[in-house]
Amino acid sequence: SYIVQGLRYNRLKNSKLILSNMAITFTNYVSSNNYADFQSLNFNYQYIKTLGNNYNDPTINMRTKMHITSNDEIPMFAIKYLGGDDFVRGYEAKTSLNHIDVIEKLKFNNYIFTSIQFEIPWFEINSYKTNILFFADQAIGSNRYNSYDSTNRVIGYGFGYNLITKNNMQFDIHVGLNKYHNQVIHFMVKKNV
To answer: Chain-wide mean pLDDT for the chain?
Structure first.
């Protein structure tokens, strides 16, 4: 087992038509038995810009995530999976459900992830509003923090729909696609959007 210590920095900038959020987290894992200690550094950045002068104009949403660990070998609980709702859409979060050619490209100690999403307002009624969206996600992983192989890059893309209630709950349905001809439906619920 491990004792976990962490430090987090968060910066939020919110103006009428632009939202940006950056978070940096450093975590120290100290082993209480014979396993090696290790550290991790996480960087998350999100930038949302409305492409017009009104809040109901189309928006572009860009996200970047980076995760770096100090050791080449880390415990299973610390390994990161690059597929699923919060990462590269078009791939299942459970790696064994993906195409056999990509299974080993979806779990690593370290990764760099980027996403771009274009949202177009569809309609708005008193209690909710809806958007149609198109996205492209990609990530590259490595078990060594200083060595990345471009053959370990995965790309997903697709389209979707979201519904935002007057209570600021968001329900998303995305259809993710990839070059292995997989189609994955992602369903997400987010609070306070």
So the answer is: 92
